[in-house]
Amino acid sequence: MPKAPPAQRPKPATPPSAPSKDLQVFANPAPKRDYTIRFAIDEFTCLCPLTGQPDFARFQIEMVCDRLCIELKSLKMYFWSYRNEGAFHEKVTNTVLDDIVEATRPRFARISAVWNVRGGIYTDVVAEYRKKGWKPAPRIELPPSTVDD
């Protein structure tokens, strides 16, 4: 007599999370101040549009928000939504920038994507956006700290 397959766990009626292109936002808690938010996404995956093989990258997002900030879970779901899409490195990087700018209208945003080697070639793609008329405050160089001496 053949053995019955093991019982499978029922799937939840609504999955706890799913990929989505919907970037959620919230009000910037300090809209009068220029400050930098950095996001690091170390496990980005999409598909090569020519071969269908997976491409892997590390993304860094740096932004100076204006009135809106990105909610982190929606950012995670957004990046997850690329997992089964075929796209060139340059297209993905620029689309991410366009989508973040559309959702948040920041003062500044920079997307840096470091793609894993393919065929002996490393690819880094950097795309930037600056709000018209926005100029960052000059960088202040402070002397080294003597606290730890």
Walk me through the structure.
This protein is an alpha+beta fold and about 150 residues long. It has one domain: GTP cyclohydrolase I, C-terminal domain/NADPH-dependent 7-cyano-7-deazaguanine reductase, N-terminal domain (GTP Cyclohydrolase I, domain 2, 2-Layer Sandwich). It has two helices and six strands. The protein has helices at about 70-80, 90-105, and strands at about 25, 35-45, 55-65, 70, 110-120, 120-130. A four-stranded antiparallel β-sheet has the order 2-3-5-6, with helices on one face. The longest helix is centred in the middle third of the chain and has 16 residues, at about 90-105. The protein is extended, with a radius of gyration of 20 Å. It starts with about 25 loop residues before the first strand and ends in a 19-residue tail after the last strand. The mean pLDDT is about 90.
In short:
The protein is of the alpha+beta class.
Task: Give the topology.
Elements lengths: L24 E3 L8 E12 L6 E11 L3 E3 L1 H9 L8 H16 L3 E11 L2 E10 L19
List keywords for this structure.
149 residues, alpha+beta, 4-stranded antiparallel beta sheet, two-stranded antiparallel ribbon
What CATH architecture label applies?
2-Layer Sandwich
Helix content: 10-25%
Number of domains: 1
* CATH fold node name: GTP Cyclohydrolase I, domain 2
Q: Which band does the percent of strand residues land in?
A: 25-35%
Task: Report the uncertain regions.
Answer: none
CATH C-level class is Alpha Beta
Oligomeric grouping of the chains: single chain
Radius of gyration, in Å, reads 20 Å
CATH H-level name... which superfamily?
A: GTP cyclohydrolase I, C-terminal domain/NADPH-dependent 7-cyano-7-deazaguanine reductase, N-terminal domain
Give the SSE order as H and E letters.
EEEEHHEE
Overall mean pLDDT:
91
